Amino acid sequence: MSFLGEVRLEEEFGPFAAFQEALGFVPNLLYAQTLLPRVIEAQAKLESAVRSQGGAISRVHKERILLSIAADRHDTYCVALESKVLSLLGMSEGQIDDLLNDYHRADFPLADLALLQFCLKLSRYPPSMCSEDIEALRACGFEDKLILEAVVVTALAVYRCTLSVGLGPEADFGPRKLASTRIAPPRDVALHIPSPGIHEAARNKGPYVPAPYLSSKTFGPFAIVQKSHGFIPNFFRAQTLRPDLLEAELEAVDRILLPEDVLTRVQKECILLAVSAANLNSYCVAMHCNLLRGLGMPSEEGDQIAVDHHESNLSESDRALLDFAVKLGTRVSEFSRKDVVKLQTLGFTEEQILECEVVTALNNFANTIQMGLGIEPDFEPPPDFENKVHLSGGAQTPIQAGGVVHLVDTLQDTEAGLVAQAQSGKLEAFEELARHHGQLIYRTLTAILGNPADAQDAMQDTLLSVFKHIDGFQGRSKFSTWLVSIARNTAFQRLRRGKHFESSDEAVCNEERDFRPRQVRAWQDNPEELYSKSEMRQLVERGILALPANYRVVVMLRDIQQLSTDEVARQLGLSVPAVKTRLLRGRLMLREWLSPHFANRVKGIAQ
Amino acid sequence: MITCEEFFAEFGDYLENQVSPEVRKELELHLSQCRACHVLYDSSRKTVKIVTESSSFELPKSVSDPIIDRVMAKLRTGQS
CB B53 to CB A528 under 8 A? Predict the structure, then answer.
């Protein structure tokens, strides 16, 4: 028996039949998940897509990768399983032993060795991956499709190994002997040597593999992603060379993450965030911070979980759940049945523990793919998390990179110093902050109140409120973010008092699904030369004040105050996709507004 | 070639210069063939430029200084 309970499923349960057909048996790793049949379906989808014929890598080569990674991780369960699969596929016992002990001794062509080495490096320390690794494979004659496949196979191996540690299934077959000293360092193929300080460089070089354009229209699964996420993350766009694998991944993600019958969506996103952070995966950290914000979690709370979940406001049991997931996801050798028992004593059910383990495995799957393909971020990660990644690079971080961080720190330190002085009651420090941020406060107020005179009026109340509550600023977010939140509160109070309360960004955005531009006349070549600077300014100001409040705030902060989309999202407590949607609509409405002033005159036709 | 609908789905990111090279290629091919989308893109790009360069809602020092001075005066009397 495994760590968790098992139940009997009907004979005709689809995924079991699929395993029976592909392998000739159903691995105990699957029986260990019978408490939640949908997660077995998820794994079966992934496995059958990866195992499918017609890919660039042959079945035997894929199984070799799976075995080598299991051996590298000392995963005795997966080693026994994969050895059996390979022997059923006709590989000799001698060759299997070579793979288990030192794959360099196996009688494989050089290109095969390079592929194994690539996959092992990706499984061992994903942040060290860089474009040189991809080039090394290309030099062996491998195509992009094959490289993508190799990354996904590696990710599947990581998924399985994470689950086997967490579930402790009984071995399907007799154990295989593993050498005590593991695989020798690279010697015959020059792959890039890992260095812990390399994340920066590596991240800037992605994406490594080109991805053909697919739209929601031509690729059905993207329509579903568009609906659930509000956008199509680069994570999925980067894998379009293999739409079949992508489709299987999306189905697996749906089955694991969407149902809320066991853990809540927020709990699952927190697990994904905390384990991604422990894996130093900036891409996934930024993604899950944003998804959590979309689910209503304040941005500082998500940022805090990314940096250290122990200091977050999560309940004690949820923090223990994250401890469990992080240990399973990143410190496998320390994990044991005791960790499962500990969660049970805290009141977690076996189903919840199982789901937590599957989410952790899925996270490691996604982290591996992202690092393996060098997928470009959709969003910026929390600034404090970036510092943490830098620090973990330790002494090997390049000197130039350290210099940049230092400069940013100095700027932030000056403001932090002023804030600290203001908090201790020093009025001069407060005055300097007020003058420095006056413009931001004024624009925020104008955007919400929709009237510059009211905004000037509300400035005083806002500044007094800032001073009154400044002790409540704990430095978890940027000071400017906190200022915007005070300004917004002040403005909303005024609106409520004035009884002309216009539901603003708290309210659900009225999604005019088919908002389409109406003005189709071309604009003149240099529209800014048609009016004086002050006339232009008046036009724009009138246009912005005419926007609905939802759009006005976003356009004001992004285009007038010129903050980044990420900062705007943080300040308004919105997800980046929500900000992007409002920004585009706002800009298009402004375009309609400005069009009569800048469009070409149509000769001979009355206007 | 992609449809106008597909073009519009990527339009926001294209305006922000945040699309991958593969997507950019598709969008630019569409722009070169579709007049309506070209007009939309050109006028939207100009809109963003006009708005960002307008220095709208700049609070002149002559307005902000007295406000801050009043706040500081209030705080000083409150503190002493």
Answer: yes
